[in-house]
Amino acid sequence: MSANVAAVSTYVAAEDLSMFGRDPWWLIALKAVFCFAFLMVTVLISIVMERKVVAWMQLRIGPNRHGPWGMLQSLADGVKLMLKEDVVVKRADKAVYVLAPIVAAIPAFMAFAVIPFGPAGNEISVFGHRTTMQLTDLPIAMLYILAVASVGIYGIVLAGWSSGSTYPLLGGLRSCAQMISYEIAMGAAFASVFLYSGSMSTSAIVEQQTDRWFVVLLPVSFIIYIVTMVGETNRAPFDMPESEGDLVGGFNTEYSSIKFAMFMLAEYVNMVTVSAVAVTLFLGGWRAPWPVSTFWEGANHGWWPMLWFVLKLQLLLFFFVWLRGTLPRVRYDQLMKLGWKVLIPVSLVWLMLVATVRALRNENYDFADIALYIGAAVLGLLLLSFVADMFRARKAKQAPPAKAPAEFDPMAGGFPVPPLPGQELPPVPRRRPRRERELIVSGGPDTQSDGPLGGSTDGKEASDG
């Protein structure tokens, strides 16, 4: 009974958000401007870093003209895009066409409002006022992030629909299907963190990682989230909505100038936001890494937590760049198969496993007993799978031989069509071996077999005729 009371008191203390909402209006505005500026500067650095890292991977020089070592290249690209001609497609739905880039960009900034840069209890002084290193926090902060991220995807969908063109429409539809496929697994990965931490507040989730980060306790949730965050941001190798190989440019094909720049900005801001969420949920948030936190007591006080947060964030942004420079783009069917047949089932099974472990821990079961129960359950599942495979193999041996596939004529309809599943193309006629063909000399006689049907094309006979 005392253990349950202690658990409840800990949960209530974790949900104590009284330190938020006490700042004056000018300090709230200043913190909001800081979040906006932090995102913009991080985006500018990320664009230059991506181009330089990919160039280094491909043994190229990369940007080296604008600014020292080419560090102002992304700023020059932004100025160039703003000065380009702003073309509006004639068949576009004007209102939605103009609104779509705004819908894609603004939610990416909104999600950063609940990301903690430092501990809630460690207040810093800003112009004589004590405040937390976080704009605000909510009891359902992670649900707020999920909702805002979902709204941002609609900007891409609306851009493809309103352009009045085929390629942008296909890119928008792909983005919609990709969002549905990967957001389910992402929500299940979030739910595992909620169960283990007992809270949906971002500051409370970071506080629960005092002894051990959730990447160690929930490794499957971390891997699932890493894959889904790449799919949610439409980045390589999951950049199907804008694949230039088959959709020219995808949903942004008909956009130019500042509206195209807003789509590019939204993509990179989403990268920063999902990376910040990964740091908050699984990598200890603003906490110092393990070797530093053991011998330095002040590592998690003052302005130092912001440094650890930024370093972890940059590592995840490098991971995005590394993926783009390493992996080729997957096919669309592989993208959907990974989302629906792998990520969603694995995330649901893992969620049930985490819920079972938490329920047993709440009942004061020993860790060895929990491991024994889980091991027995996994062993039982493997045994059932082995028995099912045995019966399936025996049934396949007893089944009658399959009938030969029907002959397929690819030109039956008057134009070439690909074969359906189970159909095979007829064998391609091979040319005769080289030793059976005569070398046709220019102006000399041709062979009878190589000539047209119904007569010889011998030059001598033709002249005699």
The tally of beta strands, per DSSP, is 2
Q: How far apart lie the N and C ends?
A: 116 Å
Helix content: 55-70%
As an assembly, this protein is single chain
Classification by helices and strands: mainly alpha
Q: Reading side by side through the largest sheet, how are the strands ordered? A: 1-2
Order of helices and strands: HHHHEEHHHHHHHHHHHH
Count of DSSP H/I helices? 16
Poorly predicted parts: 1-14, 440-444, 446-465
Biggest sheet architecture = 2 strands, antiparallel
Overall mean confidence score, pLDDT? 81
Based on CA atoms alone, the radius of gyration comes out at: 31 Å
Enzyme class: translocase
Transmembrane segments: 25-49, 96-118, 138-161, 182-206, 212-231, 268-286, 306-326, 338-358, 370-388
Catalytic activity: a quinone + NADH + 5 H(+)(in) = a quinol + NAD(+) + 4 H(+)(out)
Family: Belongs to the complex I subunit 1 family.
